[in-house]
Structures are given as structure tokens and as C-alpha cells.
Amino acid sequence: MSTSSIEEQLRALPREPGVYLFRDASDEVLYVGKANSLHSRVRTYFRGGDSRVGLDRLVERVTRLEVIVTQSAGEALHLEQNLIQRHRPRFNVRLRDDKSYPYIAVTVNDEFPRVMFTRERHRRDVRYFGPYSSAKKVRETLDVLNRVFPYRPCEGPAPGRHSGVPCLDFHIDRCLGPCVGSVTKEAYAEVIEGVTEFLSGDTRPTLDALERKMQAAAEAQDFEEAARYRNRLFSVRHLAERQAADRRDIGSVDVIGIAAKAELAAVQLFPLRDGKMVDRHEFTLENTAGHDLTTLLEAFCLEHYGSARSIPPLVVVPPDAGDVSALAEFLSELRGTTVEVRGAQRGEKRRLQELARRNAELSLENEALRSERRRAWRVEALEELREVLNLESLPIRLECYDISNTQGSSPVGSMVVFVDAVAKKAHYRKFGIDSVAGPDDTAMMAHVVSRRFARLATVESDDYDEGFAATPNLVVVDGGKGQLEAARHAMRGYDLPRVAIVALAKRQEEVFVPGRSEPVRLERDSAGLQLLQRIRDEAHRFALTFHRQRRDSRARESILDKLPGVGPVRRRALIKHFGSTQRLLEATREELEGVPGVPARTGRQIYGVLHKAGGA
Questions:
Q1: What's the mean pLDDT in 176-193?
Q2: How far is 500 from 535, CA to CA, in rounded Å?
Q3: Would the CATH topology of 253-365 be identical to that of 562-612?
Q4: What are 26-79's pLDDT values in tens digits?
Q5: Rounded to two decimals, what is the model's pTM?
Q6: Three-state SS for 192?
Q7: Residues 379-406: what's their mean pLDDT?
Q8: How far apart are CA 586 and CA 436, in angstroms?
Q9: For residue 503, is pLDDT > 90?
Q10: CB within 8 Å of 566: residues ≥ 6 apart
């Protein structure tokens, strides 16, 4: 779009609060922001009034402006959060790997809720606690909780197994057995309420209840039961002491500390509930260069609190955070009651905020050290491979291939790509293999490699695929001499004079090179071998995952094809009714008899076949 067109859009901007979106030539959203005055704020990007680092890269790509007027800055902040979550713009400040933190989830909408480990937090019918600092800590917490609160460990919305036999946890008093009707829904709900109460930081009721039960058992001279309650009491008390620091006069508050440097910012969040510091959460923000503290604070709170299940009435922020009135309005709307956002000037809250800031600074320093170590390791690994394998240049782009099949059935191949010794998952590709008969891994390898390099010729065509467009510096195949020769023979049909190829054999971790009878042996702790192992293991994981998906899909298709009285029409009716093949396999006889478009008699026959096959 021409400069005059941008100028016309700038002149038409309203002077009201709202949200603006910058789009590129393909209409992709590059950036989402909010403003008290859209006219003034957006114009600064194109008038040189915003000197943030890297802003020129954003502005030069903008071809269309889109604005949404709101009634207030708080409403604009709310809308900004929704649009950022929807479009994930590449130039916005964002949480790094925000879905990878471990949580404890309670499926409160299930008839008999579960308490489980998870790394996702997007379902509205689930109550989440966390994020926690490590997965190990979450699993330890769940183990202690399950000894005190006998909630069900089984998966799925309904308790129990297909066989109807209760599991071992029921027999060792780690589950109340809702699957066999040994506990009422109301009694089980009390157990779950105790779990959520404890995870929310209120540990006193749990400790008091365990102490009462221990005393009652001792008075009844049931010393074995008393000892059991004593051990549970010690475990819960230790857990409570480990994850709680008592500051009852503070109440429920979140304390936020931020430290920023170059392209990264570290955030430390200290959540206190009823005066207890229940955990410490650590986050990393990316794309932060040139952004002020207020922008970073708002960006973090939009992502973190936008999907949080609870928000405290007070959020303590750095004292120099600037105007946070819009953020307070946004959080108040999410919580349903007033949320105060302010910087602490004195007392315990100020001390905690300074502690959070100092932890954020240390986290940023550690991240810089880790980044430097990772960079140095990558350079060392690439340099070592170039020297040991006698390559013309650094193997900047590595591609690794692997084959996965079960005695020749459902064969697949994988291609994984590392650029600068870092996985580039957008370029991973998988191959279904239908033209090779029997368990012939070398022929399958040749087939996959040939298909990959044949795609180099389609770079300029409509069938363009970015993952196949670049030529690798080094090809790695998983296997020994046989796989190496098969892949090398397949590559001869293409003009690839500067592409080196090696094979990595699992048993002795030997590297086979064309033209050498003896393998190259690298030191076990060498960076070069570790890089080859890493890409080989990734190719194996990627191929195995695809093979399992393909095998399971074909197995389910074969089961549906063999169902009595079921043709294409009834098969579609079954899948439409149950939503998935897995759900169909788990259906009861009554559910199968009630499928619209399928006679009840046929439903009974289907159940009989699936039951005999072990699928129900």
C-alpha cells in the first residue's frame, strides 16, 4: 500500500480511546495496541515520535490500519487482551512458553471431579492452581494430597474402568471408590472442597481435621489408625511449611517484580493468600526492546490474569510503574469486584516488592548466562562437526531422517530440521509410505529421501513448501551403512554437490561416513556427538508419533469396517452421534441402541462385536 494511502488512514483516525491493529500486505496482524486517543497514539509510529528499538521493522511492513473505538481506556485494555490472544501478533510483548508451566487442575464440573497435573489452563470448567515452579513440586504436592484426600486417580469425566473392577487405589484407601458406589456425590464433593481449600492457601482446616481424627483414634486405642493420621499430619504440615510463609496482616495480594534488558524481561510473581505466600511464579517476556515498564506490566497482566481463575483484591506493582488506572479497571472487571493496583511505598509490601524485583533481576542474569552457554555450545558443536566430518562449511542446516513401522505395517518417515543447532519445528515434515512392501527399512529410507529432494524442484511452483525450499548442509540418517547407502543413492539423482551425508547408529553411537570403512567415533561428552544424538532422537520421536497415529487410525477404521449391518451411511451416523471413534468404542449398549439412524438391534450387535474385541 502506498504512503499516501497510509496518510489518508492516519487523517481519518478518531480522537477517542480504543484499540489499533497494524496489518501487513497479507492482512496478517503484526501488532495490537491500545490508546487513550487513537489519533495521537497511532500517528507517533509514522511521525518518528516513537523511538523504540526495532520499531522501523514494524512500520515498514504496515499496509493497513484498523481501529476499534471503546468507551474507556479500561475497556480498550480488555479488548486488547482478547485480540492479542486471538491473533498472537509477532511484534507484541508476549510470555515465552506460557503454556509450558505446570498447574494442578480440579475438574469442578465433573460429577466426581479429578485432581490432576496439567500444563494447560484454557478450559473454563476447570479450576487451576499455579503455575508452579517445577513439575516435580506439583507431583510431590499431588502425592501428599492424595494421601490426605482420597480423590479418584482415574482419567476421564466418569470414574472407573471398563471392567467395572475397582483399581488398587481403592483397596489401599487412596480412593473412595465412586466407580462402585461406595461414596455419595455429596461426600466426595466435601473431599474436593478440602483439596481446593488447601491449594488456595487455607491449610488450617485440614491440619485441624487430621489432628482431631488422630486424637480420636488414639482415644479409641486404634493405634494403627492413629499412626496413619499422624503420618498424614506430618506430611501436610511439611507441605504447608514448604510452600507458605505466614504474613497474616497482609491478606490476599499478588506482588509483581519486573526486570528488563534488551529483548527480554523477567517477571517474578509472589502470590499471597490470607497472608501466606503459596508459591513463587517466574515468567519471561519476549519482544520487550524499547518498551517502558508500564507497557511490560500491562502486557504481562493481560496474558496472566486473562486466563487466571482467581484474582486478589490487591496487586502490588513496582513503584515507578506509572499510570495503572486502566489496568486496575481491567482487573476489576475480570474479578467482578474492585481490584486495587498500586506500588507499595513502605512496610512489608514494599519489602516483598523489592524482593520480587531482585529475584527478577537474578532470573534475567541467569537467563543471559544460560543463553550464552547455549550459544557457545552450539558454536562448539557445529565447529566440531565441520572438523571431524571434513565439511566444506559449518553445517548451519541439518536434516535428519528416520523410519518407523511395525513389521512393515503402517510405515512412515520423518524429517526434522535444526538451524544453527536449534530445532526449527516449522520445517519438520512427515511421510506416509505406501509404495514399499514388507519391512525393508533401507528401501523406505531411499523412498523418503528421494521424495524430500524431489521437492527442491517445486520451489518456484504453486506447490511451494517452505520446509523443503532450503538445501541442507548436512543430512543425517538414523541407522548404519545400509541406510546410509540407500539415502546416498537416492540423493545421486539430484544436483546436490555441497550436501554432506552421514549415518548415526544407535548401538555404539558410531558415525558412518561415505567412502570410509571404519566409523567415526566421537567422544561421548563431545558437543558434536550430542548434537547428532539430539537431532536423531527428535527424528525418532517425530516418526514414532506419526506411526502410532497412523496405526491407530487404521486399526479403528478396520474395526468400523467389520461392524455388522454398518455401511457408509450408518458409519457416518455413528461418528456424528459420538463425535469420535474412541467415544464410539467406549459407548454402552444403551447408548448404541439409541443412535438415530441405526436400528436398536444393530446397536446391540455392534456392542457385542466391540465387547468381544475388547474395545468396550
A1: 87
A2: 16
A3: no
A4: 888 899 998 888 888 888 888 776 667 667 788 888 888 888 878 778 778 877
A5: 0.56
A6: helix
A7: 92
A8: 35
A9: yes
A10: 560, 574, 598, 602, 606
CATH number assigned to the domain with residue range 562-612, chosen from the 4 options 3.30.1780.10, 1.10.10.10, 1.10.150.20, 2.170.120.30: 1.10.150.20
- CA dist 33 → 91, 95, 318 (Å): 10, 16, 22
Q: Collapsing DSSP states into helix, strand and coil, what is residue 48?
A: coil
Phi-psi region of 511 (alpha: psi -120 to 50; beta: other; left: phi over 0): beta
Question: How far is Cα 478 from Cα 473, in angstroms, rounded to an integer?
Answer: 17
CA distance readout (Å), 587 to 155, 162, 172, 598:
16, 10, 30, 14
Task: Specify the CATH class of 3-92 in words.
Answer: alpha beta
Class of the CATH domain delimited by 253-365: alpha beta
Q: Is the pLDDT of residue 400 over 90?
A: yes
Write out the DSSP string of 529-551.
HHHHHHHHHHHHHHHHHHHHHHH
- Per-residue pLDDT at 377: 93
DSSP class per residue in 384-405:
HHHHHTT-SS---EEEEEEEEE
User: Cα(415)–Cα(425) distance, rounded to whole angstroms?
Assistant: 10
Average pLDDT rounded to a whole number, residues 571-589:
81
Going from N- to C-terminal start, the domains of the chain cover 3-92, 103-199, 253-365, 397-544, 562-612
Cβ-based burial of 190 (10 A; exposed 0-12, middle 13-18, buried ≥19) = exposed
C-beta separation of 494 from 514 below 8 A: no
Whether residue 469 has pLDDT greater than 80: yes
The Cα–Cα gap between 45 and 324 comes to 23
pLDDT of residue 51: 63
pLDDT tens sequence across 144-180: 788 788 888 888 778 887 777 888 888 887 888 888 8
Phi and psi dihedrals of 347, rounded to 5? 75, -165
Q: What are phi and psi of 575, to 5 degrees?
A: -65, -40
Are the CB atoms for 530 and 374 separated by under 8 Å? Answer: no
Cα–Cα distance for residue pair 272/256, rounded to 1 Å: 11
Cell of 349: 509490601
In whole angstroms, give the CA distance from residue 96 to residue 106. 25
Q: Is 591 helix (H, G, I), strand (E, B) or coil?
A: helix
CB-based contact 246:237 (threshold 8 Å): no
Write the single-letter amino acid at 124: R
Residue-wise DSSP of 506-523: TTTTEEE-TT-SSPB---
> Residue 494: how many CB atoms within 10 A of its CB?
15
3-state DSSP assignment of residue 282: strand
- Least confident range from 290-294, 457-461, 567-571: namely 457-461
Summarize pLDDT for 604-613 with one digit per residue, the tens: 888 888 876 4
Q: How far is CA 574 from CA 77, 571, 612, in A?
A: 45, 5, 19
Predicted local distance difference test score (pLDDT) of residue 289: 84
DSSP3 helix / strand / coil % (the chain, rounded to 5): 45, 20, 35
Q: Terminal CA-to-CA distance of the chain, rounded, Å?
A: 60
Q: Which CATH number fits domain 397-544: 3.30.1330.10, 3.30.70.380, 3.30.420.340, 3.20.20.70?
A: 3.30.420.340
- The values of phi and psi at residue 123, to 5°, are -85, 130
Pairing status of strand 409-419 against strand 397-406: antiparallel
